[in-house]
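Field reference: sequence -> structure
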Amino acid sequence: MYLAEVVDLLLLVLPGTIWGASFLFIAEGLDALSPNGVTFVRIAIGFATLSLVPAARRPIARSDRVRTALLGILWFAFPLSMFPFAEQHVSSALTGMLNGANPLFAAAVASAIARQLPSRATAAGLAVGFVGAVLIALPDMTGSAAGDSQTISIVLIVAALVSYGFAINLARPLQQRNGALPVVWRAQAVALLLTAPLGIPSALDARWSPHAVASLIALGVGGTCLANVLAATAAGRLGATRASSTTFLMPVVALILGVIVRHERVAVVSIVGAAVCLTGAWLIRQAGVARERAVRARPLEQARVPGAGC
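Structure field:
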């Protein structure tokens, strides 16, 4: 029993930690490559690594191939291209903290797709979370050192998060029908093809160093492959709602590594905003937990009523 609890804990902690560290590795990779090169190399390494996992190569339904290709754009090619461009002008810590708003965009997109207003609890979480996201970005957009490049970088990060919001909602039914890893592997293949035209020339013209190579390997193997495998395993073992709590670690890890490793300066307002943003994400998660419990309770309630469900 104790070993099982340790495994469950690792499945929750490791993906968020790896993804949180990815923003540091992006910043380190930019010392050798252009943004397009960083994106292409990480996807290439991640795809090659995931190809070694037999479960990833299982077939998917033919009817899901187009949606999986679209997922390659929304989940990998587009957002993973935005972060390196953004980190040319804003810190890895700020980028990671803004990624704490990921669940907010997923919930907002889900409501838009369903064409219905979110529940009161979800709406409260969205309101709190978006206030936190504004606080995170505020110093870089209004401070004395703020400029067009910082503002554009934050817009790129937000665009990536919006793309993730659509990708998460698109991925759920695809993964339920086909399994997570076969869908992710094929989506990465599409992203690899799309990023190759600009990424390959950048890789050939790179200023390679052992430090940059190590960072990009860690980024590709860890952030693009291993974290996805662990997250998929956690979702199957613990349930999607509980597994999603790993994302709460991303801003914390990105902040700590950015400050300690790269000596980045982060405004207190941004740190407070990250805490507020995570609070909003937690409220949304709790609303989802309550909704799932209510759905599971309905069959039991119907079973107690004579003739119910006939």
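Note: Residues 300-310 have pLDDT under 50 and may be disordered.
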